[in-house]
Amino acid sequence: MGNEWLQGPVASIDAAATAAAEARQGQLTKPPGSLGRLEQVAIRLAGMQGAEQPSLERLHIAVFAADHGVATEGVSAFPQEVTVAMIANFAHGGAAISVLANTLGATLEVVDVGAASESPAMPGVISRRAGNGTSNLAKEAAMSEAQLANALAAGREAVARAVANEAQLFIGGEMGIANTTAATAIGCALLQRPAIELAGPGTGLPAAGVSHKAQVIERALVLHRAAMASPLAILRCVGGFEIAALCGAYIAAAQAGLPVLVDGFISSSAALLALRLNPAIAPWLILSHASAEPGHAALVAAIGGEPLLDLGMRLGEGSGAAVTVPLLRLACALHNNMATFAEAGVAQGA
Questions:
Q1: Are residues 139 and 22 in the same domain?
Q2: Residues 128 and 40 in one domain
Q3: Which of 9-13, 134-138, 237-241, 346-350 shows the lowest mean pLDDT across its residues?
Q4: What is the rounded distance in angstroms from the CA atom of residue 129 to the CA atom of residue 116?
Q5: CB of 256 within 8 A of CB of 11?
Q6: Which of 127-131's residues contact partners 24+ apart within 8 Å by CB, and which partners?
């Protein structure tokens, strides 16, 4: 299967529902605009869902896990074995995203897109492996064309499952030791920025470790410069299987008319890639939170828009996006349940 589907048409935002939601906001018992971005996000969700009064009861969270060959360069504070251990932790309910999904009543699935070693079968874990981790991006292309297509398709399939579950919102998360290195390399290639400007501590590197990480990324950028002539080529040369899956999921969700809540740094690198591949998906992406990773601000500026929260989070897993869900639910509740001036018998201001 090729990657032609990535350029396929995207669902339209419902202009009538958007207009109706805007009109409703203008009639609610409050000064116009006084609920700020809560008003704006409710109107956006109305247009996405094609309903004047949007709802976010049914959530689908897919966490894509994979390993990275570049971990052998010493760019992470944790060993690669942690990825497989965390897959089990997700499945057994012990990870942050597991707790959040359970609290939110969300469907949670974990997709092994290519950890370094295969996990035993576990409930809630889907094996969709593109390989035993990527190759070392500092020495060769991270993945082959076939592996790239497989990983992109894994994201598309996760969205198909979300649609089958009648989800009203899709959250993509990720897990993979050294994946901030891949995400930084992607950001540098897309934005034409030096690695030292975007590289950060990831799982907790000290300053010297961040400097080393930037040097490794620069080596990779020089090595692959001639080959990275397109967003897909950038993803193949310096990306990760889980980043490719997220990229595919974001495009597939927009094509299916399923709203997306984008998580932090890794997810945003995938979102920017997805936008470069299919710019029409932009209205379907909601930025959830500002990551504490230094490079996130540059990715957000390129994506456009403003994250809803800034809690200093940098965990990944989709955790920042999940934490944003109660805010979105409150925005919908205010939009749907506040009285209008007419209903309350309150005189509307001039």
A1: no
A2: no
A3: 346-350
A4: 10
A5: yes
A6: 128/154, 128/157, 128/245, 130/66, 130/154, 130/241, 130/244, 131/241
Q: Write out pLDDT tens, residues 295-331.
A: 999 999 999 999 999 999 999 999 999 999 999 999 9
- For the chain, how many structural domains are there in total? 2
CATH code of the domain covering residue 307:
3.40.50.10210
Tell me: do 35 and 131 sit in the same domain.
no
Domain shared by 143 and 244, yes or no: yes
Does 317 participate in catalysis according to the annotation?
yes
Residues 317 and 282 in one domain: yes
Helices (H) and strands (E) in the chain, counts: 14, 6
The total number of residues written for the chain in this structure? 350
State pLDDT tens for residues 95-115.
999 999 999 999 999 999 999
Domain assignment present for 349: no
List helix spans (H) across the chain: 15-27, 37-49, 81-91, 96-104, 145-164, 179-191, 195-198, 207-224, 231-238, 241-256, 265-277, 296-303, 319-337, 341-344
253 is a domain residue: yes
